[in-house]
């Protein structure tokens, strides 16, 4: 068990922060602008990321999501603001949080990305008009892209009267990790066909 009040989550050395500065510096990366712009297989244009995804970030995110250590959201929000600035987030009409299925949300008790973005932008900037309507298998347990795509078919749906709100709007989808991009692409697809003007993605890490 970690002594969370005086140890770094990663190296477990004495620290007055959840993650000591040495560990933050070890996996902090430059933003991955235009990381996927060359690809025709996605419904979004650009992906931005705070970190490279490695074993240290995996450990931190797992701890945040499954050990219910919500205080890490403040650290992540601070790092996003330091790296990108609030102006970057406010340049979009809406920030979209990848929604959890209601059963998963009930079990976990919180959406890990919601806690972060609420500390970065005003609540009226956060678009809550889309939901996850199908309970899908965990994407990390599926190895082929084809299986991942099928797993997410028709899993997102706009709430009543919300689809027209995104027409001709700039959309930034926010999630924790980009691996194959299947989940984010499935979500972006809904906004693409709702005639959003621009769709980008931002994550904590890119694998």
Describe this structure in words.
- By secondary structure, the chain is α/β, with parallel strands linked by helices.
- The protein has one domain (30-206): Rossmann fold (3-Layer(aba) Sandwich), CATH 3.40.50.
- 34% of the residues lie in helices and 17% in strands.
- It has 8 helices and 7 strands, in the order αβαααβααββαββαβ.
- The chain has helices at 21-27, 55-66, 72-84, 86-90, 102-108, 112-117, 145-152, 182-193; strands spanning 47-52, 94-97, 126-127, 130-132, 156-158, 170-178, 198-206.
- Strands 1-7-6-2-3 form a 5-stranded parallel beta sheet.
- Helix 8 (182-193) links the parallel strand 6 and strand 7 (198-206).
- It is globular, with a radius of gyration of 17 Å.
- The chain starts with 20 loop residues before the first helix and ends with a strand.
- 30% of the residues are buried.
- The model is unreliable at 139-145 and 147-151 (pLDDT under 50).
List the helices and strands and how they pair.
Layout: H1 21-27, E1 47-52, H2 55-66, H3 72-84, H4 86-90, E2 94-97, H5 102-108, H6 112-117, E3 126-127, E4 130-132, H7 145-152, E5 156-158, E6 170-178, H8 182-193, E7 198-206
Parallel strand pairs: 1-7, 2-3, 2-6, 6-7
Antiparallel strand pairs: 4-5
Which properties best describe this structure?
207 residues; alpha/beta; Rossmann fold; five-stranded parallel sheet
In short:
By secondary structure, the chain is α/β, with parallel strands linked by helices. The protein is built from eight helices and seven strands; from the N terminus they run H-E-H-H-H-E-H-H-E-E-H-E-E-H-E.
């Amino acid at each position: 068990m970690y002594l969370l009040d005086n140890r770094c989550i990663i190296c477990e050395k004495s620290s007055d922060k959840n993650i000591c500065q040495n560990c933050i510096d070890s996996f902090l990366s430059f933003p991955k602008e235009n990381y996927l712009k060359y690809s025709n297989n996605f419904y979004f244009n650009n992906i931005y990321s705070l970190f490279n995804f490695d074993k240290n970030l995996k450990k931190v995110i797992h701890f945040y999501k499954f050990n219910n250590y919500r205080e890490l959201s403040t650290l992540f929000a601070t790092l996003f603001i330091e790296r990108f600035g609030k102006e970057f987030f406010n340049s979009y009409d809406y920030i979209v949080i990848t929604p959890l299925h209601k059963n998963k949300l009930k079990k976990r008790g919180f959406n890990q990305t919601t806690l972060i973005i609420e500390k970065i932008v005003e609540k009226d900037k956060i678009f809550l008009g889309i939901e996850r309507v199908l309970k899908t298998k965990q994407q990390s347990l599926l190895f082929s892209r084809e299986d991942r795509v099928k797993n997410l078919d028709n899993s997102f749906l706009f709430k009543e009267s919300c689809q027209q709100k995104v027409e001709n709007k700039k959309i930034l989808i926010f999630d924790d990790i980009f691996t194959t991009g299947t989940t984010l692409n499935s979500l972006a697809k809904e906004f693409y066909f709702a005639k959003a003007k621009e769709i980008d993605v931002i994550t904590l890490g890119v694998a």
